[in-house]
Amino acid sequence: MKMKFLLIFLFSVSFISAQVENVELEHDIYKYLKEMKVKSIIGSIHDSQPNMSRLEILNFLNEIDSKKDALSGTEIKLLQKYLIEFNPKLQNKDNTAQLLGGSDNYDNGLDLFFSNKLKYFYSYQDKNINFYFNILGNYNHGHQFDPRMNNSEIYDIGFRGRGTILGKLGYMLKVVKGGVSGSIDEAPQYDSRLNYNFKFNEGIENIRNYDFAEGYLRYYDEPAENMNYSFQIGREKVRFGYGYSNSLVLTGDHAYIDFVRIGFSYGVFRFTSFHGSTVGDFSEVRDSNYTKYIAANVFTLSIPKFIDFSLGEQIIYSGRGLDLAYLNPFSFYKFTEMSLQDRDNGILYLDLQTHFLRNFEIQGTFYLDEDILSNLQDMARFSNKTAYQLGFIWYSPFDFSDFSFSAEFTKIRPYVYSHTNFKNAVTAYGSAMGHRIGPNAEELMARITYNFSDQLRCELEYTNTRSGKNVVDASGDLIKNVGGDSKVPHRMDIDSEEAIFLDGIRINKTNLKLLVRYEPLRNIVFDFIVNYSDQNNITYDRNNDLTYGMLKMYLQF
Question: Does residue 289 belong to any structural domain of this protein?
Fold first, then answer.
């Protein structure tokens, strides 16, 4: 009896010290976990919905630590670095610094900013609550060489506060404010966030500026062995669907979505229900702005050492307030949408990812936009709005440690992501929420990655994209609609019922990108990027080259 009480007590203490707030999608830990998963060190990391809590990541890291004999030297150093970051019990004066305030656990002082220690501006921990506060800084210098010389400076500063209360309630608040100087028009190619920022696009102030805010509350509990559930409300970047290059479903690289999310997991079964809102196209006329809603359910069956299989559904609607029908997690949204008089954009998709080959993974997605039953045999019909994606990653080929090769093919038929009501297109702020190439396009991507050390990582990526654009005149009026714009739907009795793939203005684009990421000191990261693209307009025999380089610096203290 005493032993049982002791185990319950130890479990409670351990859980109270747990951190259940999520880790941002940009964090490099996701790349490391992906490599360890492909290497069969750990099992499924459900990267079709990659937002993970710090507790979940720590559990993966502990599993990797138990098998570290199978790791390379660089993989072990990365593991040690991440264990210190995600396990507060390992943080001490030798590896962690707090720049403001006193702490018995951490080294103190502003002079530690340039040390190689994990850094917090301020932190607080006791048996009930933990709180971590960081100042964030970002600087991006982009220099275009061709077709003309110019440069842009993008810089911001902000803060992030996060923590967990009683081991169950995670919270986070992040605020960033920045400015842009130099060439304003080219700045979004160096920082895609500017494409969907209202302050930047409005541009009415003397200094072109931007701001972003994220925050949420997340409740998490483990009521039984191998079972957990969560409820989250707030705003953060989210992604649905696989994709080594870009997801077909929701990429995360678009305007923020404010959402409520319910998650449940038990054994091999996982379920997520999501309902969010975002914004429509940008307009300087405030009365023209509108809200669009996104509802989604995803069922996943994860069979260890074999395969993950997911069935997802998604609805996009607008023109009215919150629809209670789509708050129901136990509903088939497409049929529900039909009962609501077929006003909304209904989507189904299938995901799969293999686990049975060591060092090799295959994943794919089939995406079906609206049409379920009619004319499926006629793939040239405009209503067959389908897309698919298939790719693989090969990690440590021929025992070449710390090296990976991945490739992926994506094909998106005409009119995918569009809807008869343009406000229900799969866009936010006028930019795609799905794959970046858009409808009536295909892309082949290949990427090689090598971790030279725990501080230095290099990626070389090649893409070849073919697309068919709508034909417009000099004033922008539509001449021929080929389904090449997600914001322009098929027009009954005007546009052809046959949608030939890659019809319209034919664009071929080749892109080559080199990324070198270097972290000389903890929480100080540099990205060196060189990008070259060759865009060839086959229809009008025009060629455009674009070459630019970037130096990006990230600070966190």
Answer: no
Higher confidence at residue 175 or residue 14?
175
Q: Supply the Cα-derived Rg of the chain in whole angstroms.
A: 24
Six-digit token string for 551: 């130096």
Query: How does strand 505-521 pair with strand 524-537?
Result: antiparallel
pLDDT tens string 353-383: 999 999 999 999 999 998 766 666 777 899 8
In a domain, 62, yes or no: yes
Q: Is the pLDDT of residue 11 over 60?
A: no
The whole domain housing 43 covers 1-90
Give the pLDDT of residue 306.
Answer: 96
Structure tokens at 556: 């966190």
* 3-state DSSP of 136-155: EEEEEEEEEEECCCEEEEEE
Strand ranges for 18-113 from DSSP E: 96-98, 107-108
- Residue 528 in tokens: 């060196």
Taking only the tens place, the pLDDT of each residue in 306-320 is 999 999 999 999 999
Residue whose token pair is 């130890």: 10
Is the overall model pTM greater than 0.90, yes or no?
Answer: yes
Torsion of CA 282, 285, 288, 289, to 10 degrees: 40
81 found inside a domain: yes
Q: What is the DSSP string of 324-363?
A: GGGG-SSS-HHHHHHHTTS-SEEEEEEEEEE-SSTTEEEE
Backbone angles phi, psi at 282, to 5 degrees: -70, 140
Backbone phi, psi, residue 362, to 5°:
-120, 135
Rounded CA separation 97/118 (Å): 6
Contacts 24+ apart (CB under 8 A), 197-206: 198/282, 198/429, 201/282, 202/284
17 pLDDT band (50/70/90 cuts)? low
- CA dihedral (314, 319, 321, 323) in degrees, to 10, reads -40
User: Does 33 map to a domain?
Assistant: yes
* Token output for 410: 């994506």
* Count of structural domains within the chain: 1
Q: What is the pLDDT of residues 100-137, one digit of tens each?
A: 876 668 888 877 888 999 999 999 999 999 999 999 99
Cα 435 from Cα 418, distance rounded (Å): 13
**How many angstroms separate the CA atoms of 368 and 241, rounded?**
13
Question: What is the DSSP pairing of strand 118-120 with strand 96-98?
Answer: parallel
Report the SS3 class of residue 189.
Answer: helix
Alpha-carbon torsion 318, 319, 323, 325, what sign?
A: negative
